[in-house]
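Reviewer 2 asked us to include a model.

Predict the structure of this chain.
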Amino acid sequence: MSILKVNALRSTADGQEILKGIDLEINPGEIHVIMGPNGAGKSTLANVLMGHPAHEVVSGEAIFGGKVLFDMKVDERAKAGLFLSFQYPQEVPGVTVDNFLRTSKKEISGIMPMLGAFKKDVKQHMEMLDMDQKYLERYLNLGFSGGEKKKNEILQMAVLSPKLAILDETDSGLDVDAIRVVYETVQKLATKDNAILVITHYNKILNYIKPDFVHILVDGKIVKSGDLSLATEVEEKGYEAFKKSTDVNGAA
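Predicted model (structure tokens):
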């Protein structure tokens, strides 16, 4: 059974149609990458799936783990195993990274993790991300650099072990070394039982993560899907070629 199946999804924000008929199926063990120009609707798709209140689902459906996703509240989606790494993580004064991680784990699993085992697990993940353990005592994202915020998002993903992790332009604002560390870690976190959806417009991340499927999203529609070679086609031709084919042929 697929982890996520999206059929003919349309959505609006502020009265404007953004998603114009998205079809997407993600199975266990798969890594998917969605690429597209700015304003194509990539982040909108992530926000709609997670239940952002600014986005209204007009039509279509999404089935997550056998359940109707849009019937679930945001916290229910998270507890069911859906995770979203934000493009712009928020600062949370007064809440340490350590407390946030442990409390989040409790909310997802229903059981407060044993302190010793939990700290050992977190330490291993922080080493993978080249993060100093001193970050655990700092307030969540407060005073963090862009790279530190993004690494912290992936640390949350590692600790929570979601069924489907959606990474919304996690590469944004990162230098080359941080991109390598982040996406090599993401690749290591991929298993036969989970799935990962990476949203990006920066195909250099594909030096560090190997997707099973690449999708091109233009003007609210997935206009082409393929394997890793599709990213090379984007690098050679740019997105304009896909925009032109959509204009000529209509919705793909």
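The first helix runs from residue 42 to 50. The two ends are 25 Å apart (CA to CA). We have added this to the supplementary material.
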